[in-house]
Amino acid sequence: MAKQYDVLFRLLLIGDSGVGKTCLLCRFTDNEFHSSHISTIGVDFKMKTIDVDGIKVRIQIWDTAGQERYQTITKQYYRRAQGIFLVYDISSERSYQHIMKWVSDVDEYAPEGVQKILIGNKADEEQKRQVGREQGQQLAKEYGMDFYETSACTNLNIKESFTRLTELVLQAHRKELDGLRTRASNELALAELEEDEGKPEGPANSSKTCWC
Amino acid sequence: MASPASTNPAHDHFETFVQAQLCQDVLSSFQGLCRALGVESGGGLSQYHKIKAQLNYWSAKSLWAKLDKRASQPVYQQGQACTNTKCLVVGAGPCGLRAAVELALLGARVVLVEKRIKFSRHNVLHLWPFTIHDLRALGAKKFYGRFCTGTLDHISIRQLQLLLLKVALLLGVEIHWGVKFTGLQPPPRKGSGWRAQLQPNPPAQLASYEFDVLISAAGGKFVPEGFTIREMRGKLAIGITANFVNGRTVEETQVPEISGVARIYNQKFFQSLLKATGIDLENIVYYKDETHYFVMTAKKQCLLRLGVLRQDLSETDQLLGKANVVPEALQRFARAAADFATHGKLGKLEFAQDARGRPDVAAFDFTSMMRAESSARVQEKHGARLLLGLVGDCLVEPFWPLGTGVARGFLAAFDAAWMVKRWAEGAGPLEVLAERESLYQLLSQTSPENMHRNVAQYGLDPATRYPNLNLRAVTPNQVQDLYDMMDKEHAQRKSDEPDSRKTTTGSAGTEELLHWCQEQTAGFPGVHVTDFSSSWADGLALCALVHHLQPGLLEPSELQGMGALEATTWALRVAEHELGITPVLSAQAVMAGSDPLGLIAYLSHFHSAFKNTSHSSGLVSQPSGTPSAILFLGKLQRSLQRTRAKVDEETPSTEEPPVSEPSMSPNTPELSEHQEAGAEELCELCGKHLYILERFCVDGHFFHRSCFCCHTCEATLWPGGYGQHPGDGHFYCLQHLPQEDQKEADNNGSLESQELPTPGDSNMQPDPSSPPVTRVSPVPSPSQPARRLIRLSSLERLRLSSLNIIPDSGAEPPPKPPRSCSDLARESLKSSFVGWGVPVQAPQVPEAIEKGDDEEEEEEEEEEEEEPLPPLEPELEQTLLTLAKNPGAMTKYPTWRRTLMRRAKEEEMKRFCKAQAIQRRLNEIEATMRELEAEGTKLELALRKESSSPEQQKKLWLDQLLRLIQKKNSLVTEEAELMITVQELDLEEKQRQLDHELRGYMNREETMKTEADLQSENQVLRKLLEVVNQRDALIQFQEERRLREMPA
C-alpha cells in the first residue's frame, strides 16, 4: 500500500463552552461553518492530513466539550496530545479570563513537552469585542505561546493556526523523528522502541520525555 | 409588477416559455417567442444576442444577466473559441444538454437530436455542490423555483432536462425531436464531410448536415462503433425505484427525507423492516421532489418470497424480465417499504404515472456496470477528421446510490467541451485524445471532497475543477489506437495482454518458492526442506518458518515434547493469529503430505507477505503492509467471540472449550476426528469438495466462500462481522444472530458485541504496558481468570492479552491515566454525572441561535422559500431516532434541532455514499473471486488427474495456479482493507446515534428525570465515549501499520 502520510500527531482543542472549538475544527477539516451552537458531548475527533515542509502530517484533532461537567472526561485525553489549542472568544471576557484555568489544567494533565497556541476566536464579531487584540498577545507572551485571532465564520487564520501548531509539534519532535527514521532504516524495528518505553529508567528515557 | 395582460405578445411567449413544464410547451412557446421577435431559431449565439436585444422585458433581464456572466468567462473567448466547429450531439438527457450548452457558449454550431418526444423521467438525482452552483448560474431558480429548497439537494431528471433545454434553446442550439441516430456516414469522397444516419426521415437540411464533432450522450445502451466497453460485474444486485404522487400537503412536507441508510452500518433499521414487513433490503433512499422518490436495493430471496418474482432464474435479464415480475406485487413491495421508511406518514402513497401512464415503479439490475475504455476517438477518412466524444451513461454508467450520476456526468460534459475547444484551437488529434484520456482517468475518483473547494470558480478549464491535474498522465503514444484512419486496417486493441504479462513476471514459480522456504528455515535443528510434502510432515519446518518470521513466540526447545500434529496445529494457528495468514489446508493434510498443491498455496501466502522483508537482524518482522488488515479483522472477530463466550459462560456445556478458543459448537463435527489423514478437504457446511482456490478458513474449519453466509439472510459473512450461535451452530451476520441468550437487550444494534480493541481498555488492565508481540516470554497477566491449563496456555494468554489492546505505536509511551489508576478514571467518570442533577447551563447560546439559519439558507437573491419550513412536530424526530422520546424539550430549541438535522443529513449522505462505494467494490471482489475459483478448480483438476501429461505442461499449470492464488490473496487483502473502512463507518454511525440519544436525555428537565433516566443517560455517555475510543483504535491501527511499513 502506498504510504499515505509520514507522521501522526494528536492535537487537542480546549477552552470554555461556546468559544467555537468545534467550529474551528469543522472549518479546518471540512471547510464548513454552522453558526448555531451545538455543544459537544464528551469528546470527538476528526482527521486531516496536511503538508508541512514537504512532510505529510496526519493530524488527529480532538475536540473537547467545554462544559464543566465533562471535564473529568476530557482531561483524560490531555496526556495523549502533542499540541494544544487554548481557545477563547474575543466577545467574551470571561472565556479569556478562564484561559488561566485551562493553562493550569494543561500543566497538570498534559505531557511535559506539549506545544501550545492561543486562539482568540470569533474575530469577525468586532462590534461585540470585549477582549483586545493586545490582551491576547500579552497573555500569549506571558505563557510563551503563539497567538492568532481567528474566525471560523469568515475563515480567518484557520489554516494558518492549525499549520502553525503542527509545525511547532513537528519542530519539537524533529530530532526524535529523524532518529526514528534512521533507526527504522537500520531495521531496528519498533519492538525495541516499545520496550524502551516500557522501561522506567535507562538511556531511552530522554527520548521518552520528549515524546510524551 | 407588470400586469398579467401584457400588451407585448413576445413577453407572453417568454413567460410561457419560462414556466413551461412540458417539453412540447417549451418548444412551441420558444418558436412563438422567436416568431414574435422576428428571430430565426437555432442560429447559435447570434440568435441569443438577437433575442436579448429584441426582448426588452424586465422579467428576462435577470436571466440575461446570468447567461451573460457565464458567456463572458474568458475560456469562451466571447463565443469565438469554436466558431468554425460543427457539432452533432446525440441525446437530450441532462449530460447531452449540458454539453450542448457548453459547445454553444464556445460559439460552435450545435445540432442536437433526440429520439424521444417528451421528458418523463421522474427519478431524482442527487446534486453535488458544484452542480447546484452551475445550474444556478444558468438560471435554474428562474425556471424552477423549487430548485434545491429541501433538506437535501436533488432534482428530478425531468426538471433538470427542462431547464437545460430552455437554456440550450436560448443559446441557439438547434434541436430535433423524434429523430434517432443510427450510425455515421463516412465522407464518400475527398472534400465532403461526415454525416449522420438518422431515422425516421429527418428533414433534408438535417440529413445533409456535415459535422466534425460528434458527442454521443445517447445512454448506456448506445455506444458508437469503435469504442470498447468494459463490464464491471458485481454480485446480483436488484434496484427498485418508485415514485409516488406528492400532493404537497402539510403532512407530506413534514416527513423527513432519507439521504440513505445502508445495511453495512445500520443493521437495526433493516432488521425491524424485515420483522415488520418481510422486506429485506440492502439500502434505501427517499427524496422529496416533484414526486416522493424512493430507491432501494432488494434481496432476491425476499422478492421471491413475497411473490414479486415468479421464479428464481439464473439469467438476470430473465429474472427481472417482464414475464417474471408481478407488477401488483412489486407495487405492494415498494409501497410497504416506503411506508415503513417514512413511518406511514406519507398517507396512502399513490403511484405517480410513468411515460406510458402506468404506476411508476421499476425493478432493475445493476449487477454489471458498463464503462467505456476510452472517452474519445478520432476517425479520419478522405482527409475529413471527426472527433467523437462520449458523455453521460455511455461513458460511465453511474452507480445510483453514489448520487454521482449527474455530477460526474457534468464533469465529463465539461471535459468533452474542453476537448472540442482544444480541437478547434488546432491541437493534433493524438494530443487532444491524450489530454482527454488523462482527464477521463480522474473521473471515477472524483468526489465532492477531493475536488476544488471553490465551486464558484468551476468552468470549462479542467484546472478550475480538478486539483493535482496532470494533462499528460496519458501520452499521445498511448492513444494511437484511438486515432482511426479508415484507410488503414482497423487496428484491434489488445486489451488484457499487458496485464497478464505483468503478472507473469511478478509471480513466483514453485522453484522460487521452495528456495525461499529453504532460506527461511535454514539452520533450524532437524529441518530440511526439499519438497512440498514429506519435508513438512513432522511440523518442524512450519514451526521453523513461523519462528523465523515472528521470533519470540516459541522457543525451539519447547518443540521438544510436541508431536507432529501438535506442532503443525500450533504453527497454523500462530500464523493465522499473529501473522494474518489464514490456513489453506488442515494440519492432518500437512502431516500426511497428501496435498502438495494446498501446501504450495499456503506457503505462497507467506512468501508474498514476507518476501520483501529482510530478517538479517533477527528482529521482529511484520507482514509487509497489508496482511495486517486481515490480522486486525481476525483479532476483532476473536475478541467478538470472546465477548459472546463470556455471556455463555454460565450455560454449562459438557465439553468446555478453553475460553480463549474460538468456540465451535458440539454440533459441528470436529475436524480431526472426521477427517481421514490425507483425505481431501471438504466444506464443513455443504460437505462437498473444496478446491484450493475455494478454501476459506474460519477458526481452523474450511468452507466454500459462498457457503459461509448468514443462516438467515444468506449474506456473505466477513471477519469482524459474524457470529456463531452456540445453540444451533449456524453462522449469522450480526443482524440476524439470535439474541435471546444475550443478557442485556442491545439497544444499539451490535454495539456491545462488537468490541473493538480499544486503547482505553488498557486502563482497565493491571498490566497494560506489555506490547504483546514483542515479549519473548509472556508474563502471565493477573487480570485473567485462572483456567484449565493446556499445553499452549502461555501463548493463548499472550494472545488474549493482545486482543484487548492495540499495541501502542513506537512513537509514544503507552497511555496512562492521569493518576495512573483505572478506578480513579472510573470514579471520575461517575462523579462527572453528579453535576447533572443541578440545572446546568443550557447547551445553547441564545444569541447564536437567532442568527442561526439565515446565513445557511441562501445567498441567492431570487430565493423563494416555497416549502414551508418543517414545523416543529414530534414526528420530525423520527429520523433522529431516539430524540422522539422527549418532544417537549425539543420544541424549545427549534433552530438547534433544525441545524442538527441538516448536519446529520449531510453526514448521513456522505457516509451512505462511502458505504455504497465500498459495498459495490466488495461485490465486485466477490464476483471476481468466484471467477478465480472456477479457473483454479479447472487447473487443479487438470493437475491432479492428468498424471500422464508431460512435466512441462504440469509445471506451466502449477505456475498458473500459483498466479491465481496470488491474485486471490491480493483480493482478500483488499477486501479486508475495505472491511476496516466499514468498521469506521459503522462506528461513526453509532456515535451519531448515541449522540442524538444523549441529547434527548440532556434536554429533558433535570427535575423530571428519574433515577433510571440518569442511569441510562450515564450509560449512553459511556457507550459514546467507548465508540470514540474505538474509532481512535482504528486510527492507531493504521498508524501502527504505517510504522511497520517504514523499513520497507
Could you characterize what this model shows?
The complex is a heterodimer of chains A (212) and B (1048). By secondary structure, chain A is an alpha/beta fold. Chain A has one domain: Rossmann fold (3-Layer(aba) Sandwich), CATH 3.40.50.300. In chain A, 40% of the residues lie in helices and 22% in strands. Chain A has eight helices and six strands, in the order E-H-E-E-H-E-H-H-E-H-E-H-H-H. Chain A starts with 6 loop residues before the first strand and ends with a helix. Mean pLDDT of chain A is 82; it is low at 183-212. Chain B has 1048 residues and is an alpha/beta fold. Among the domains of chain B are: 79-119 and 128-145 and 155-228 and 371-481, FAD/NAD(P)-binding domain, CATH 3.50.50.60; 235-366; 510-607, Calponin-like domain (Actin-binding Protein, T-fimbrin, domain 1); 688-718 and 729-735, Cysteine Rich Protein; 893-1045, no CATH class. Chain B is built from 33 helices and 22 strands. A seven-stranded mixed β-sheet of chain B has the order 5-2-1-8-17-16-18, with helices on one face. Chain B has a five-stranded antiparallel β-sheet with strand order 11-12-13-10-14. In chain B, a hairpin with a 2-residue loop joins strand 19 and strand 20. In chain B, helix 5 packs parallel to helix 8. The radius of gyration of chain B is 33 Å and the shape is globular. Chain B starts with 8 loop residues before the first helix and ends with a helix. Mean pLDDT of chain B is 73; it is low at 488-507, 614-627, 650-679 and 741-893. The chains are: A alpha/beta (212), B alpha/beta (1048). Chains A and B meet through strand 2, helix 2, helix 6 and helix 7 of A and helix 27, helix 29, helix 31, helix 32 and helix 33 of B. Chain B: Keywords: Actin-binding, Coiled coil, Cytoplasm, Cytoskeleton, Endosome, FAD, Flavoprotein, LIM domain, Membrane, Metal-binding, Monooxygenase, NADP, Oxidoreductase, Phosphoprotein, Zinc. Chain B: The modification Phosphothreonine is found at residue 475. Chain B: Its EC number is 1.14.13.225, 1.6.3.1.
